[in-house]
Specification:
The protein contains five helices and no strands. With about 120 residues, it is mainly alpha-helical. It starts with about 20 loop residues before the first helix and ends in a 6-residue tail after the last helix.
Length: about 120
Amino acid sequence: MPEPQWSPCSVWALSFRTTRTEPYEAGIEDGCAALARGAWADARACFAAALAVNESPEPYEGLGTAARYQLDSDAAIDAHERGYRLARSQDDTAAAALLAVQLAYDAYACRPATR
């Protein structure tokens, strides 16, 4: 099993093991760059484009994170749930764990305000 590699996109800097293509990699890299500069709509578009090429857990993480920053809790949770289910179906425990943490953060950040 290959060792996790550093990725600028993930909070824990774990990269996902996938079969990658040029447009897919460009979508991920551009999406991560857009997240880093706070361009949430651009990030969502980049990750959606990457998903159109190759459905894998990594763009779902980025898509959900960008949606969370846009305060779109339904889209954030949906993307992170889809990524989690996909990672589990691929037996990718590192990706599943990362997405489970993202879902936990969604549950905290997207919860209704209480008095």
